[in-house]
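The protein record filed here:
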Amino acid sequence: MRPGRELDTMIAKHIFNHDVIIKRKIPTEVTPAGERPLREYSKEIGAAFDVAKKLNISLIPIEGGSWFALAGKEDGFPSPASFIEYLGAGNFVNAGAAVTESAPLSICLAAMKAVEAKLALEINERENTQEIQQ
């Protein structure tokens, strides 16, 4: 997915639970504090950093000018050593990870992958519970 309004709208809706409306042809975010123009989460590092804080996303610069973003544990990592251990295990199935040439885009893609993984896990757990009850 490319940076832009579609991804920014998904971030506003699925990460921050904000409604997004079109007002005078301008995408507008409806937040608890009021309405504002839709933030460019996928392009502006300040807006993307709010996403990173919300989901405890780690951002690492990698060779060639790219960025690796990883949405890890919901409550963060207890220490840098545990983060390195987690990276070493390479089990990113229930986390979101992304590599792009843009730090904001990497953060947003990792966030959306984390949301998708969480939803898939919830659906799987619900189906397993229904099977057990039958």
